[in-house]
Amino acid sequence: MKISAIIGLLAAVPSALAVWPIPQTFDQGTSNTKAHWVSIHSQGKTSAIVNRAIQRYNTIVNNENFLAPADYDRGTLQTSGTFAGLAVSVDSSDESLGMSTDESYTLDVPVSGQATLKAKTPYGALRGLETFSQLVTANGPTKTIANTPIHIEDAPKYVHRGLLFDTARNFYSVESIFRTLDAMSYNKMNVLHWHVVDSQSWPIESKTYPELQEKGAYSKSMSYSYNDVQRVIAYARDRGIRVIPEFDVPGHTYIVGLAHPELMSCMNKQPNWDKYAAEPPSGQLNIAKPETIEFTNKIVDEYAKLFPDEVFHVGGDEVNRNCWTEDADVQAYLAAHPDESVETLLASWYGKVHDHLEATGKQAYTWEETLFHSEYKPNNQTILQVWMDHTSVDKATAKGYRVVSSAYDSYYLDCGHGAWLSNFDGNSWCDPFKTWMHVYNYDVTANITSPEQLDLILGTEVAAWSEQIDETVIDSRLWPRAAAMAETAWSGKTDSTGHVRTTAEVASRLHEQRFRMVGRGIGAEPMQPLWCARNPGACNLP
Amino acid sequence: MKISAIIGLLAAVPSALAVWPIPQTFDQGTSNTKAHWVSIHSQGKTSAIVNRAIQRYNTIVNNENFLAPADYDRGTLQTSGTFAGLAVSVDSSDESLGMSTDESYTLDVPVSGQATLKAKTPYGALRGLETFSQLVTANGPTKTIANTPIHIEDAPKYVHRGLLFDTARNFYSVESIFRTLDAMSYNKMNVLHWHVVDSQSWPIESKTYPELQEKGAYSKSMSYSYNDVQRVIAYARDRGIRVIPEFDVPGHTYIVGLAHPELMSCMNKQPNWDKYAAEPPSGQLNIAKPETIEFTNKIVDEYAKLFPDEVFHVGGDEVNRNCWTEDADVQAYLAAHPDESVETLLASWYGKVHDHLEATGKQAYTWEETLFHSEYKPNNQTILQVWMDHTSVDKATAKGYRVVSSAYDSYYLDCGHGAWLSNFDGNSWCDPFKTWMHVYNYDVTANITSPEQLDLILGTEVAAWSEQIDETVIDSRLWPRAAAMAETAWSGKTDSTGHVRTTAEVASRLHEQRFRMVGRGIGAEPMQPLWCARNPGACNLP
């Protein structure tokens, strides 16, 4: 006998729709539909992306023989109808993907007969296909869709449901990026923020400055060619995921100095790197030299072409003033220009970079320091990424900026593994570990009531900085915790009655999603003993 | 140019022997030996275990094309001699494995000609083979052994270098246990403490009480047959690893109650399980019932036969008094026996279990509570496992007990992932994460000076409790942190001059070991950005 039945805590509650993230609205019946072989096909207008997704989900659903851990002893369900395929239709074949893309869909699964998935765009169809795939479960030797008829109307709460992926501290093969994009799609996430380069390595090919990769990649095999990047972008797009590149300037740029020392300040100061940088090796573009603007603009020109997304991230975080005040070039410049300072130089530098970026037709995406810790005032088309201080969401939207939150104390998934400097056995600055419950409980709208401000919140983004991560362990660092954010970003914090969902309520569904992901080849970490997954409610703190 | 050369911190120090754990004594030369194809063979007396190990290492060494990260730019080394095979000989073919097994070996690699590995026992030969395998590195299209001639004399500091593996909270396939045993052997660890069963599941076959597994395993496929267990024991023995089983009584036994409710107290109290157990589900053997002694003794009889090791762990941790004081049976018993109490019952219960265990010829291994938190006084043949309080090492050895330390605040590798109860988003009781530096810095002999007490320290054991671990993530939870303990347990804390090794000094070698393990199929987590691994000393805190 199942413990949840004994303790009767959840047994009385009708089972929620077993979909992660939970759809905005849904109705369920009390029948079960037999689905021996699941056939998905397009109907009417379609698109190549939808057709490929149909092929993918036909494979996933028919190969999968999934049963939620809590259903381990449910036995064979009686079915009263037979599934006769899923017809997928879209209003428009337009495959453009961006911030204004409509991802809504409507899914109907009758007790018997053909199910229908309708969407305005190909990307809405992708979301509906993922939802559909999660409705199909094993049933003895065959499959079933339980609790039919089902009617779902769904659309995301936020347009930006992101993951920051850092390929500079440690390298990731294209295959591991593909696997991560697959996992994102299983959770309806739609932005890969690709933090491509940083002080430790420059893995990406540059046609403008080939020497950056030649001297800055960890090795030839630990590099991304143009073709690799295009494959990642295409793979992501096929899953409705935008790829926003980040080229972080003017800090975090030691690696540029291997090829261009003439552009740099404070290159690899040792052993006291901590006076010059947040982590070793130190090195920043020298903001007193106009050549660093020219360099940055050419980088922006090149990669703004390679990456089609309308948004482009130019970093701007963690600049260190000592790096410049102790630099002889900067000192000489300031001596010759007594009305200037490091602050005015930096503000002017940011302005030239942002102006040039916007002239390419892109919208600038930047870390919160650009606004809050410099004298530069970005224009209101700029998207700010909050990380240091979660109250910055309120402050920045109050000033009219669009905001994405990656508040480190909730969303930095790399944190909690202690410090990584070889001679120090203490914690890291961002310990402790962010549990899935902690991720889930974050509310990006906390303390914000103005509708205008709320409208400026584009969404949220978990970060996986890679000082202590590489492709060996990326799956378990991301999943299922990134999925916890994904539900709050897709479904919002509340259900249709305004009730704020609690981790106790959703734990069982997240267990299910975690096991589903493992079955699909994603090495997501276990949340609890299997006993707890099988006995919902029995592993709560009283 | 390599940064370590620029900063000159470590460049002046002759490179340590690139072996993990570091041998007790070694001499190196300045030549390099070419080793195109590595042939290992036995000479004179041998054993089946040694022969299988030779076969294994022939494969490992010849398949491996390993270069330490810090050597990434070393170019092709000039060689001045040619390797002509490794001859392995043992003084004795006796394959018995236990606490008194001699694991010492002597390894000589000349500049040119045949290398020799000599050991007293087959298990010493295994250790020497692992050391030898780590000396061979890639060199352009061929291989080399650098810094020859090499003379190594080596033996372990401690006889117990263990890993606690918990197959009850979550299940592990036999293959994942094999992989873990491989990894242990790469680090010269020699004890798998198999925490087989616990409240959440009973995966192991019982011929005495088949119903335990039938009702207590998570599923048929999540079970260990006798044959599975024998395969694990044989696989471990082939790598010089003893398997000590733990059947934890009288606490942590909810799962027994599924088959035998008549033996139990406080079965799965909900929702206030925390009054009765350290974690859900609650349930303890009822110590007022002689049937629970009989049950335990039969379990001991059965598994003392199945597991050949001379040591047998009978748990004894975290018993909860409320579980019994609120039990009607216990209350009735105590009412009828006014001179007894829960404490006298428990002491008597422990005594009967330990006496019976010792009558089977085994030595009892038990958690520290048996001595420190009960009125029972184990005899001095008992081995105490310390976990709650690291000062217990001193206290227990002062009383004449042999001790293994698994001090939770250094060695619980599961800790640091936050709490796992579904409705609580805080830390776990044993956060933060234990970094490899923290593991390495633990000194089991701290504050102990008496030679008699020091002699009673058998060694150390890291623990991987599996509430938040299963086979999806076990590799990265264990490695390279367990390797950090392994070096301190094999090599000791100090070098031959008495200098206490620091994490800054050993980091580069551990990076090397981590990458070697990844190459051998162990998903060990990265310690730092690859840039740091390549630039020893450049990622220290100033």
TrEMBL record, chains A, B:
GO cellular component assignments: membrane
Glycoside hydrolase family 20 catalytic domain location: 158-492
Enzyme's top EC category: hydrolase
Family annotation (InterPro entries): Beta_hexosaminidase_sua/sub, GH, Glyco_hydro_20_cat, Hex-like_dom2, HEX_eukaryotic_N
Keywords (A to Z) from UniProt: Glycoprotein, Glycosidase, Hydrolase, Isomerase, Signal
GO MF entry, a single one: isomerase activity
Signal sequence, start to end: 1-18
Domain Beta-hexosaminidase eukaryotic type N-terminal, residue spans: 19-135
Any Pfam family the entry gives: Glycohydro_20b2
GO biological process, one term: glycosaminoglycan metabolic process
Family label: Belongs to the glycosyl hydrolase 20 family.
Protein name: Beta-hexosaminidase
Taxonomy of the source species: Eukaryota, Fungi, Fungi incertae sedis, Zoopagomycota, Kickxellomycotina
